[in-house]
Amino acid sequence: MQRDTFAGIDNILLSLGLDESGSFADSPSGDSEETSSGDSQSTQSAVSEQTKTASPDQHAASPESESGEAEPGKPVIGDITRDNYDQARAHLAKIEAARRLAKANEKPQSDSPPNKYPSLRGASEFSPKAPDSLEQAGLNLSDVMNLIIKYLASRGVETGYKIALQIGLNFGLVEAILRQLKIERLAAYKNAIAGGDYLYELTDLGRERARILSDQTTYFGTAPVPLEQYIASVHAQSLEGRKPSLNAIRRAFSDLDISDRMISNIGQAIHSGRGMFLYGPPGNGKTSMAERVTKSFGDTIWIPRAIIASGEILRLYDPNRHREVPISDDAELKVDGRWVRIERPTIVAGGELQMDNLEITYIRKTGVGEAPLQMKANCGTLLIDDFGRQRMSTDELLNRWIVPLEQRHDYLHLESGRTIQVPFDQLIIFSSNLEPRDLVDDAFLRRIPYKIEVKDATEDEFRALFCKQATQQKFSYTNEVIDYMIIEHYVQANRPFRFCHPRDLLRQILNRCSLHNLPREITKDSIDQAVENYFSIM
Question: Could you give the count of Cα atoms lying within 13 Å of 56 in the half-sphere of its Cβ?
Fold first, then answer.
């Protein structure tokens, strides 16, 4: 669900005096099913009296142009333009659509148990359907009430529809909970707005309750998804068993110049679903290859924004590591708003990786936990880059992951001391320019079935790559100059051909041309200066 989309629209609705159909109100509107209580009737009457005394004709006026004449086609009410009026109408339509969907989802009671894991599609294409009840959402009434109370304490005054957006549940469910808050004198109607919605605020009793709740946990975001529902979603969207075609893998690596044999080796590792070890000299594209593995699967997944496990809330969605994929407005009303659709994740951890990153991290004084890296990488790829250069020892890291790699699940410790089991379901890739035998023992290497050496380029591969990139950057050159570079600076210097060198040397030459306002031409002088700068201490 998109937040803050309708900021300021409620004030426009109040100013316009619109009724539930979106037309101007010049008579009291009838009570809807949702506003049948005594308090609702009195509030509606108050608003109706206000709108009765101010008919559209009294307010309708055209905005004045600079010459003082009315601008045609832009009627206003006060300072509200037709554009804002249209926004208000759209807001009303959203409210009504949400309410109609909630009513349509109401089903007669049956003897069969409710579906705990509703999905818009089959298991092969998981998509979380908006729950019809709190039981189906895996939540209880007090949990949701507490979130709403803390949210209202933060916002002061808010509409019921935007409270529903914040919590991630459909409007019909949240409306009923807001009525319960009013019955318990924790919240009150500040004003009625069009569409049968209200502006809500906390009472003194509600503000006191919010203060007590915030001492336990400050979280008032999207309602969390139960751990068991998250586990079911991982199994439904797992990489295991998904075998992208060779053409799909080629497309994922199309921007890299790698051999067919390397594509085949990596493709086999992808089909295994178990992981791989990329090793070899630096500068040959190990990291670039690993980052493109996830693209070969070419689809998206759904993850909860937050998870609740044994009463504790863990944040899973990380906007810094996950890339959200928007959905249409029509689908938004049908999908459980507690979930977010993302590209299959590629989580990268380099030399900065510490053991704390592999455990739940608790944010001080908030009572909220942050999911570890391997959990954020579920249904995607986890890349351990520069393996062997982490701050912790390789033995410590490997011992931490021997069981998860074998059993495909991990154990995490909550702040309360309880232990939970979560899926360990990702393609794990280790990338290193160190010799694997010097880093790990045979027991661990056995659990990483594919060990792929990324070798230096041959002279022919280097020449072809340099010429290709020079042409793409619109450099002019001759074969004589390329021969000079290879013989003088590589063969005679006994320097290895690395796949990164053409890109890096061409950048040096481009900067030289830019500084001295020279044409884009590769000469012996430009190559000599680029080599001098780049290889001076290498």
Answer: 11
Number of residues assigned to the chain? 538
pLDDT of residue 352: 83
Closest of 412, 404, 387, 405 to residue 316, by C-alpha? 412
**Which residue is it, tokens 């000599």?**
528
Locate 318 and state its tokens: 């990380």
Pairing of strands 225-226, 306-309: parallel
273-293 pLDDT, tens digit each: 777 889 888 888 888 888 888
* pLDDT tens-digit map of 366-425: 889 999 999 999 999 999 888 888 877 777 887 888 788 888 899 999 988 899 999 999
Closest by alpha carbon to 483, among 506, 503, 460? 460
∠ at Cα 303 (302, 308), nearest 5°? 145
d(CA 91, CA 40): 21
Residue 535 burial (CB count, 10 A): 14
| Three-class secondary structure of residue 41 per DSSP | helix
Count of other CB atoms within 10 angstroms of residue 264: 12
Q: What three-state secondary structure class fits 177?
A: helix
Place of tokens 């006191």: 208
CA distance 308 to 317: 13
Residue 72 burial (CB < 10 Å; 0-12/13-18/19+)? Answer: exposed
Structure token digits, residue 537:
């201490």
Of residues 239, 248, 245, 289, the one with CA closest to residue 453: 289
pTM over 0.90? The answer is: no
344: closest CA among 449, 242, 264?
242
What does the CA dihedral 153, 3, 233, 109 come to, rounded to 10 degrees?
70
Tokens of 68: 């003082």
Q: Cα separation of 294 and 260, whole Å?
A: 19
Distance CA 380, CA 378 (A): 5
End-to-end CA distance of the chain: 52
* Cβ within 8 Å of residue 246, ≥6 positions away: 263, 267
